[in-house]
Design a protein that fits this description.
The structure holds 2 protein chains of 2 kinds.
Chain A lengths: L2 H25 L21 E11 L9 E7 L2 E8 L1 H6 L9 E11 L2 E11 L2 E4 L29
Parallel strand pairs in A: 3-5
Antiparallel strand pairs in A: 1-2, 1-4, 2-3, 4-5, 5-6
Chain B lengths: L11 H4 L11 E4 L16 E14 L2 E14 L3 E11 L2 E7 L2 E5 L4 E8 L2 E9 L4 E7 L3 E9 L11 E11 L5 E11 L4 E10 L2 E7 L5 E4 L4 H5 L1 E6 L2 E9 L2 E6 L5 E8 L13 E9 L4 E10 L4 E11 L2 E5 L6 E7 L6 E8 L3 E11 L2 E6 L5 E8 L7 H4 L1 E10 L3 E10 L7 E9 L4 E10 L1 E2 L8 E7 L5 E9 L4 E6 L5 E8 L2
Parallel strand pairs in B: 1-32
Antiparallel strand pairs in B: 2-3, 2-10, 3-4, 4-5, 4-6, 6-7, 7-8, 8-9, 9-10, 11-12, 11-19, 12-13, 13-14, 15-16, 16-17, 17-18, 18-19, 20-21, 20-28, 21-22, 22-23, 22-24, 24-25, 25-26, 26-27, 27-28, 29-30, 29-37, 30-31, 31-32, 32-34, 33-34, 34-35, 35-36, 36-37
The chains are: A alpha+beta, B mainly beta.
Chain lengths: ~160, ~500
C-alpha cells in the first residue's frame, strides 16, 4: 500500500476514532435529576398574570421580606403586596411611585411564610412602563447598569 | 451584595478562599482607638507576589452594578507595593491595568490596608492576613466595594506545562442576558495549552443546563508579552467563555471573564488524579453557597454526612432567601437524602434531600478531592454556588475553636456591605467572641474602620451541626449580626446570616 493511502486511511481512522470517542463521551454525560418543585418565592413565568390597582403605599425598604422595594396595591379583590426588586433601579429609571397612583403590573404571585407577595416583572404608570425582571424572573436590579446597556462615560468617578 | 437589593451574593470569591486551606470622597468613620493589636504579623509578613480575585459592586450611572477584578501585586515586605497587573470587568468594559508604586501596612494582628495604583488612580483595600501566604481583602472605596482573597504566587510555576491534568472550576456572575449564572465543571489541561474532557453544568436564573460538553476551542495559555512570566497572567476559553487568569501556582488559577458585558469570575483548582466513585464521599461535610433567587440575594450554609454508598444523613441547612429564612430540619419535619457520583469517574455528582415539611433541595457538585468540591444549587429559580469541605469527625468545642481568626463577610442589606477583620474566640462561656473590622456600607457611601464588636459563640454539641454566633457593634450605632456557624474543623467555620433585614455570609480562617 502506498504511503499516501496509508496516511489517508490513518486519517480516516483517526477521524472515526475521534467521532466514536466523542459519541462515547457524549453518552457519558450525566443525566441530572429533574429540578425539584418550585420553592416559595420562585418566579414561575407560566403563572404570569396582570393586575391593576391604586397605590396605597410605597416603601423603598420594606421591613418585611423579601428585602427591597414594596408596593401595597389596592385591587378589585383587595390589597396586594408587590415586590419590585431594588428601589435604586426604579430611581435610576426615573420611575416614581406615590399613594394614589394608578398602576398596572405583570408578574407572578408567590407564597411565603409571611403571606403572599406578587413578584412584578413589568410595571406601568400612565404612559411609563418599566421592566423589572428578566423573562426568567431575575431582578434586573441585580445586573445594575449592565441591565441598562450603559456604556462609555457612565462609570462614576474614581479609580478602577 | 446593596438601597434596595442591588445584586446577588457573589460568594465565590470569598468562599473559594476556604478551599485548600474608586475613589476618595466618601464618609470614613473611624471607631474609638482599639487596644494595641497583639500578634506576630508585620509589614514583613506580606512579601512577594500575590494573586487576587474580587467581586463586588461599583456605582455606574447611578446604579449599583456588579464588577470583578483579578490580578497580581508585588509587596516588598517593607510597606511598598512595587508593581503588578490586574484585569477589571467594569460597566464600561474590560481593561488590563499595570500597577505602579503604592503602599501597604500590616499591624501585629494581621490586619492592614493596601493601595493599588494604576493609570486611573488608586483603589483602597482593607486586608487581614490568615498567614504570610494568604489573606482576605475588601475594597473600601466609595464608588466600589468588593471582597475576595489573595495567595502568594509561585513565579517558578508561571508556564503552560505547570497547568496540567485535571482541574475543577466554579464561575459565577451576571451574563449578557442580565441573568445571574453559575457554571461549575472540570477539564483536563494537556500542559501545552490544550483543554480536553471538559464538562460543565450551568445554572442561569435558576434554570439548570444539565451536564454539557465544552464547546470546541477550549484552551489556556500564559501571556507571551511579559505578563505571563512576570505576573502569571494568561488567557483561556473554558466552558464556552473567555477569561483572563492569574496563576497562584499549578494547583490554583484565579479567573476573570472577559466577554463583556458578561461579568464572571471564579477559580480553578487542580483535581486529585483518581477515579471518583460514590465511595469517595464518606464523611461529614460542611457547605456554604451564595447567589440569587427570584427576589434577590440568597445565602445558604449547612452540613451533611455521606455514607460512601449514596446515602445522606445528618442534614442541616440554614437558608436566607432575601430575608426569608428556611431552616432544616424544619419544625416537626425530618430530612433524608441521597447522592450520586458520575460513573465516568471524573468527579461530577448530585445531591438531593427532602424535608418532609419544607420540600426538596437539589444540588450538583464536582469533586476536587474526596474532601472538597465546588457545589451548585439547582432548585428552580435559584442560582447559587459555593463549596463543601470535609468536616472533622468532631466534636467541635469552644475550647477547640479558641484562638485568632481572619474573617470576611459579604452581604446585602439596603445595598452591598463588605466586612473584613479579625475575630478572637475564647473558651469562656457567654461573651466569648470579640474582634475588630473594617467595612464598606456601599449604599450609604460610608466606609468604617477599626470597628470593635463582641458577643457569644454558642456551640451545640457535638458542634458539627448548626451553632450560633451573635456579634454586636456599639459604634457608631448598635448593630447586631446573627449568624449560624457551621464548623469545618477547628480552623475554618462557615457563617450564614439569619437576620431578615440582610443577607450575609462568609467564613473565618485561623491565624497562626
Amino acid at each position: 500500500m502506498q504511503k499516501t493511502t496509508l496516511v489517508r486511511i490513518s486519517a480516516v481512522l483517526f477521524a472515526l476514532l475521534l467521532f466514536l470517542g466523542t459519541s462515547v463521551w457524549a453518552q457519558k454525560l450525566a443525566d441530572r435529576p429533574k429540578q425539584a418543585a418550585m420553592r416559595s418565592l420562585a418566579y414561575d413565568a407560566t403563572q404570569e398574570t396582570v393586575m391593576e390597582g391604586t397605590v396605597l403605599s410605597y416603601s423603598a425598604e420594606a421591613t418585611t421580606p423579601p428585602i427591597g422595594a414594596h408596593l401595597l396595591l389596592q385591587t378589585a379583590s383587595g390589597p396586594v403586596d408587590l415586590h419590585l426588586g431594588g428601589a435604586s433601579y426604579l430611581q435610576a429609571n426615573h420611575f416614581s411611585l406615590a399613594k394614589g397612583d394608578a398602576v398596572r403590573v405583570v408578574g407572578v404571585s408567590s407564597a411565603t411564610r409571611q403571606g403572599s407577595v406578587f413578584l412584578v416583572r413589568v410595571i406601568q404608570k400612565g404612559g411609563q412602563s418599566l421592566i423589572l425582571r428578566t423573562a426568567e424572573g431575575a431582578p434586573l436590579s441585580l445586573a445594575g447598569a449592565r441591565a441598562l446597556g450603559l456604556q462609555k462615560t457612565q462609570q462614576q468617578g474614581g479609580a478602577r | 451584595m446593596n438601597g434596595s437589593i442591588k445584586r446577588f451574593l457573589p460568594l465565590a470569591a470569598v468562599l473559594l478562599a476556604s478551599l485548600c486551606a474608586a475613589c476618595s470622597g466618601g464618609t470614613a468613620v473611624v471607631g474609638p482607638p482599639p487596644p494595641p493589636p497583639a500578634g506576630t504579623f508585620s509589614n514583613a509578613s506580606l512579601k512577594g507576589q500575590y494573586a487576587f480575585l474580587m467581586s463586588g459592586t461599583e456605582l455606574c450611572g447611578g446604579l449599583s452594578t456588579p464588577f470583578t477584578r483579578a490580578g497580581s501585586f508585588t509587596a516588598d515586605g517593607n510597606g511598598h507595593i512595587t508593581g503588578g497587573l490586574e484585569d477589571v470587568n467594569v460597566c464600561t468594559g474590560v481593561f488590563t491595568l499595570q500597577f505602579t508604586n503604592s503602599t501597604y501596612s500590616i499591624t501585629a494582628d494581621g490586619r492592614g490596608t493596601l493601595g493599588l495604583t494604576n493609570t486611573t488612580g488608586t483603589t483602597n483595600y482593607s486586608i487581614t492576613l490568615s498567614s504570610a501566604i494568604q489573606g482576605l481583602i475588601a475594597q473600601t472605596d466609595v464608588n466600589s466595594t468588593a471582597t475576595g482573597s489573595f495567595q502568594r504566587q509561585n513565579a517558578a510555576a508561571f508556564s503552560n506545562p505547570a497547568i496540567a491534568n485535571g482541574y475543577v472550576f466554579d464561575f459565577a456572575g451576571i451574563n449578557a442576558r442580565k441573568n445571574p449564572q453559575s457554571i461549575i465543571g472540570r477539564f483536563n489541561a494537556d500542559g501545552m495549552g490544550g483543554i480536553n474532557t471538559g464538562l460543565f453544568d450551568s445554572n442561569e436564573a435558576g434554570i439548570a443546563s444539565n451536564q454539557q460538553l465544552f464547546p470546541t476551542g477550549a484552551f489556556y495559555r500564559l501571556d507571551t508579552n511579559g505578563g505571563g512570566t512576570n505576573f502569571g497572567r494568561g488567557t483561556a476559553s473554558i466552558a464556552g467563555h473567555n477569561f483572563a487568569f492569574y496563576m497562584v501556582d499549578g494547583t490554583r488559577l484565579k479567573l476573570l471573564g472577559t466577554d463583556f458585558p458578561d461579568a464572571f469570575s471564579g477559580e480553578a483548582f487542580a483535581q486529585q488524579n483518581i477515579s471518583f466513585t460514590s465511595a469517595s464521599l464518606n464523611s461529614g461535610f460542611a457547605f456554604l453557597l451564595g447567589g440569587s433567587s427570584s427576589t434577590g440575594p440568597i445565602a445558604t450554609a449547612g452540613r451533611f454526612t455521606a455514607n460512601g454508598a449514596g446515602g445522606l444523613s445528618g442534614i442541616f441547612l440554614d437558608e436566607n432567601n432575601n430575608g426569608t429564612l428556611t431552616l432544616l430540619p424544619s419544625q416537626g419535619g425530618t430530612v433524608s437524602g441521597t447522592y450520586t457520583v458520575d460513573t465516568n469517574g471524573l468527579g461530577g455528582g448530585t445531591a438531593t434531600w427532602t424535608d418532609t415539611k419544607a420540600g426538596t433541595f437539589t444540588f450538583i457538585f464536582y469533586l476536587i478531592s474526596p474532601t472538597e468540591a465546588v457545589f451548585q444549587e439547582t432548585d428552580s429559580k435559584i442560582t447559587s454556588d459555593g463549596t463543601f469541605l470535609a468536616q472533622t469527625a468532631g466534636p467541635i468545642s469552644a475550647a477547640g475553636l479558641a484562638g485568632n481568626f481572619a474573617f470576611i463577610w459579604s452581604g446585602v442589606s439596603s445595598d452591598e456591605e463588605d466586612f473584613v477583620g479579625q475575630l478572637k474566640l475564647t473558651s469562656a462561656s457567654g461573651n466569648n467572641a470579640s474582634g475588630i473590622m473594617d467595612f464598606n456600607e456601599f449604599g450609604a457611601g460610608k466606609q468604617f474602620f477599626n470597628i470593635q464588636f463582641s458577643g457569644p459563640l454558642t456551640i451545640t454539641a457535638p458542634g458539627t451541626g448548626p451553632n450560633t454566633l451573635t456579634l454586636t457593634t456599639t459604634f457608631p450605632s448598635p448593630t447586631t449580626f446573627n449568624f449560624t456557624a457551621y464548623a469545618v474543623d477547628s480552623n475554618t467555620v462557615f457563617l450564614v446570616g439569619v437576620d431578615t433585614n440582610r443577607v450575609i455570609a462568609g467564613s473565618i480562617a485561623r491565624q497562626p
